[in-house]
Each structure stands twice: as C-alpha cells, then as structure tokens.
Amino acid sequence: MDFAALDVREGPEGVTFRVRVQPRASRSAVTGLAGDAVRVALTSPPVEGAANAACAALFAELLRVAKSRVSIVAGLKSRDKTVRVAGVGKAAFFAALATVKFD
C-alpha cells in the first residue's frame, strides 16, 4: 500500500499523524487509509474517552511503545484525530504500518 498521501510529521517530540476513527466496530484494528489519515476501527463506544483510550492502546501495541507515549493532541471529541507518539520516527511508523494486513 502506498503511504505517500498520509500526513505524517516528525519532530523532536516524536511522530504526529492523522487518524479517522470508526467506533463500535466488531474488532479493533487499523483498517486502511482515509485520504491523508490512517483509518482505524475500535470496539469501544465514543463515550467518556473510551474510544480515545482504545485508539491510543491500538497504536501503542502497533508501534511497540508504552501507552503513556501515545497521546491524542487534537480531536478528542471527533472521529478525526491527531495522534502523537513520542520516541518514534517516521521510518519506524511506516515500517510498523507496512506490517498491517488491510481488509
């Protein structure tokens, strides 16, 4: 899959990227791309931060970092989010994304 369209930025604080979330899905997984964002499905409902926590946990597992290194910096109450992962570079992000089998 071609990841060139993704809006991924690398800075001293880590890698930042856009995510499009589908809450209340049958399983939690990265499901593909949605324009310049990574599309994810989450089993959690979008109430009281449950979907945000599930989103952070999903990317922590994918990138093999602690959950505390993953933060949602924009879109806490939206399906469109901006996620930052501390201690991960662009190359490691794309390498981890390349291991995902998209539906």
UniProtKB/TrEMBL annotation:
<dbReference type="InterPro" id="IPR036591">
    <property type="entry name" value="YggU-like_sf"/>
</dbReference>
<comment type="similarity">
    <text>Belongs to the UPF0235 family.</text>
</comment>
<dbReference type="Pfam" id="PF02594">
    <property type="entry name" value="DUF167"/>
</dbReference>
<dbReference type="InterPro" id="IPR003746">
    <property type="entry name" value="DUF167"/>
</dbReference>
<protein>
    <recommendedName>
        <fullName>UPF0235 protein Q4T40_09825</fullName>
    </recommendedName>
</protein>
